């Protein structure tokens, strides 16, 4: 149902860049597409969300250094992150919410930022 890709290495250096993509298939009436993350010992948290109208929401820690976008024709959501920090190390999960209120989660991809 999900095809998530990490464009580039999963291990990146602080100050570098990171890009993730996630294509959802078999899901109709997609409202929101976004990314969440979960670091070891912590709860899953929002990274960024983009609505079907293009409006975006970012976690405070991500605002200004990350960009979320989507391609509605491809049901694909992208996340770009500039100057990642070691505290960005986490498993990143793609999330899709349909207009029926159903949440779908990708399997997650590990991102490790080295100092």
Q: What is the makeup of the main sheet?
A: 7 strands, mixed
Approximate helicity band: under 10%
Number of helices: 0
Rounded mean pLDDT is 89
Topology:
Blueprint: E1 2-7, E2 11-13, E3 17-24, E4 30-38, E5 45-51, E6 56-58, E7 66-71, E8 76-82, E9 90-98, E10 103-105, E11 109-114
Parallel strand pairs: 2-11
Antiparallel strand pairs: 1-3, 3-8, 4-5, 4-9, 5-6, 7-8, 9-10, 9-11
Question: Any key phrases for this structure?
Answer:
115 residues, single chain, globular, 7-stranded mixed β-sheet, mainly beta
Overview of this protein structure:
This protein is an all-beta fold. The protein is built from no helices and eleven strands. The protein has strands at 2-7, 11-13, 17-24, 30-38, 45-51, 56-58, 66-71, 76-82, 90-98, 103-105, 109-114. Strands 2, 4, 5, 6, 9, 10 and 11 form a seven-stranded mixed sheet that branches. It has a four-stranded antiparallel sheet with strand order 1-3-8-7, with no helix packed on it. A hairpin with a 6-residue loop joins strand 4 (30-38) and strand 5 (45-51).
